[in-house]
Amino acid sequence: MQVNKLQYRQAMSSLGAAVNVVTSEGPMGSSSRAGCTVSAVCSVTDEPPTVMVCINRDSRNAAAFRDSGALCVNVVSADQQGLAQLFSDRDVPVDARFAAARWSRLATGAPVLDDALASLDCEIRSVTTVGTHDMFLCEVKALRMADSGDALIYFGRHFHRLAAPVSSVP
Asked: What are the two backbone dihedrals, phi and then psi, of residue 150, each rounded to the nearest 5 degrees?
């Protein structure tokens, strides 16, 4: 029995995931930026710290990430839902996306979202194509974390706020 594409997508909408804005500076030495909203990010190992990021291989972003050799996974907060929506809109020019927030840099030179819950600045170690997507295995070279904030989760084809736990430590 073959799994139907639409049924598969419906089943995957039941898998809640953190919302991330993944960014890059484009090809090495260029000043062209790339960025998109991604929920397909997961930890692979902590030694060396490595994450996997999946991007449709036909997108302009995937090509820019491949060419640059570096990317930053910016885990957005619930208060940054508008930014996540902006970075998911293919009709919004890249410059307009980046103009909507403040950015800095860490080790690789990829744009780092200043107010993200966490930012993982990565060198791309390998790329594997599976079906329509490229899987980027990325070694984390630097990171930055916020002190607090509510998470933004994508579940059931909608964004949802996930409240940060209240600390019971005085």
From this structure: -80, 145
**Domain of 40, in residue numbers:** 19-160
- The reply to whether 154 falls in a domain is yes
Q: What is the pLDDT of residues 25-70, one digit of tens each?
A: 965 545 689 999 999 999 999 999 999 999 999 988 999 999 999 9
The CATH number given to whatever domain includes residue 37 is 2.30.110.10
- Cα distances (angstroms) measured from residue 70 to each of 8, 14, 51, 97, 106: 31, 30, 12, 19, 11
C-alpha span between 37 and 84 (Å, rounded) = 6
In the three-class reduction of DSSP (H, G, I as helix; E, B as strand; rest coil), residue 12 is classed as helix
Peptide bond into 170 cis (omega under 30): no
SS3 155: strand
Domain count, the chain: 1
What DSSP assignment string belongs to 58-108?
TSHHHHHHHHHSEEEEEE-BGGGHHHHHHHH-TTS-HHHHHHTS-EEE-SS
Quick one: tokens of 34?
């790339």
